[in-house]
Design brief:
Length: about 325
Amino acid sequence: MMAHTRSFLSCLGLAAIGLMPVVANADEALQRIVASNTLRVGAEPGTPPMMFKGKNGKIDGFDWVIANAVAKHIGVKNVVISAGKYSELPGRLVEGKSDVVISGYTADSSIAGVDWSDSYLDYGLCLVVRKGSPIKSIADLGGKVVGIFNDPAAEKSVKDLVHGYKELQKYEDGYFDLLANGKIDAFIYDYPYAQRELVPFKGRLQMVQFNLTRSTYNVGVPKGATGLLEIVNAAIRNFKGSDGYKKAIRKYLGASQPVPIEKSSAEASGQGVYKVRRGDSLSDIADRQLGNFKRWPEIWDLNRQRIADANLIEPGWELLVPPKVEK
């Protein structure tokens, strides 16, 4: 089967420019996409920053960028949204109403009829509370009413992370209004969505802990569509290595501030504090502060619950830095 798939993929670029027809031994899902010159993407619209209508009325968002990167890699010109409610999207894929699902889904083997791609975005759950709340981390959630998005993967993660809560409530909408009005004590949610959905609350709600999990967003394809899955993974690999990917992260996912550093705690741990300069990357900082650019993951590990993404550091932000190892 894999030999046939590779043969098809090697022919796909030629087919796209009209030099030869698509061969018949490819999986049906990929054949349909190429034949129609269209990628149908199962997604829930109106979910910024991942999928939404921009000011010009056109579809925009991080998931839209990913969808177009996949379509470009396949060699088709058109991308259309097969809209549905989040919980309905896998079923619509299985029914043939879409070719792929790109809508903030984490790979979940319990969802029947779907195979999952490699990660197109690494992210973490974050903790959201009312401004001024005594809750500073998940360690403070004992006896509290905690809200989560109604998603099996999120529920499992939160149950593994949080212990002693009074009640766990699941929602698909209205959750931040409930939090702002004191109906729940905290909400644990995917960072990419949280950072945009908090904007209308104008500082009444805040994120106090990032990257509670090491999670991924993945593209769903029909189960057994090996050719399609292979080319989706290739598209993701290529795009993640590009400057366009970094620009998309900053454009769509950069609406949060870091959690302030507790200076006394940092000093007691022997950690330094570095103020980010324009043009800095974590590897640059590791090279200057620690003497080895390869030590950048150590800086990220110290700051991952303070900052949403390693690509999202801004001039003026403060970072914890581990002690320099003397030779």
